[in-house]
Amino acid sequence: MPDDDDLRFIENLLRSWQVLQESEKPKLSILGGGVSNLVVKVESASGTWVVKTSLDKLRVKEDWFADRNRIRRETSCLRIISNQIGPEFAPKVLFEDFSNFACLLEYAPDPTVTWKQDLLSGKLDSRVFERVALFLARFHRETRDSPKVREEFWDISNFKQLRISPYIDSISARHPDLRTQFDEIISGLSSIQICLVHGDFSPKNILLLPDDRIWIIDCEVAHFGNPAFDIAFCTNHLLLKSIHLKSEDLLEEAKTFWHEYSRESGWSKQEKFAVRVLAALMLARIDGKSPVEYLDETNRQIVRILSRELIERRVDNIEELASSVGKTIH
Prior knowledge:
The protein is 52% helix and 13% strand.
């Protein structure tokens, strides 16, 4: 966990960046930066900001390392979102310090919450599902076949370190009887390059601002790749929460979210593959290196059995997969 040394490091960074007055003593608060970053809220007379620095060893039980230079992808992707989708969808990048693998970002106005917080509290707003689906469709559509974006984000080694290895490779080792299916999924995610992929498009990285805007954050896994990963990754979180909450309404919203994205993105050639990725990610969030924290052991076993069956049969229809999830809710 972050400690006083971490906060001293952040304060020293701020002073080296000369964003504080010489005698100014900022208030520093640790924010929820997931397992891969140190994220700190800075409150001072000069302003309120977020400092983010990438970690080389992620905060999970198992050894999990990643290249800290991923902070460059973070800031580059945020700028693409602002420039090509709209400045209202991302925080401003205020300063970059790649020698310290850190950046200074705009702070979201209070009271901002994550979409994850709303979902786990049982708050379902159809307008948010629609906004998120339309954003993701535009994000993929606007960067599709872009030579400039491809040149900047062609390297997928970070995606392999932070997603393929801890998620798919990990469950392949624990479920060797399904290795052929996992190899097929890895091949599709590694070889098909269509557009810019966020790589961590989950409800915890979608901020709901008080003026009804949404911010997309944590773009460090961004790469030029297969859009199937983003829609599968986000839908997986919605389905797991529907199982946790025993919520048929959330399951229905998840299906609508999927279909809204599909209609707006024009990605139909990858839809069947995305369903297979979704089934694998369900198992990965149970038996991979980064399991979801809110499922109890009973629900973990339900998801394990269900996802294994979907993977084994190579289910590639979203309605069939959702129907199987629905049976676990009743």
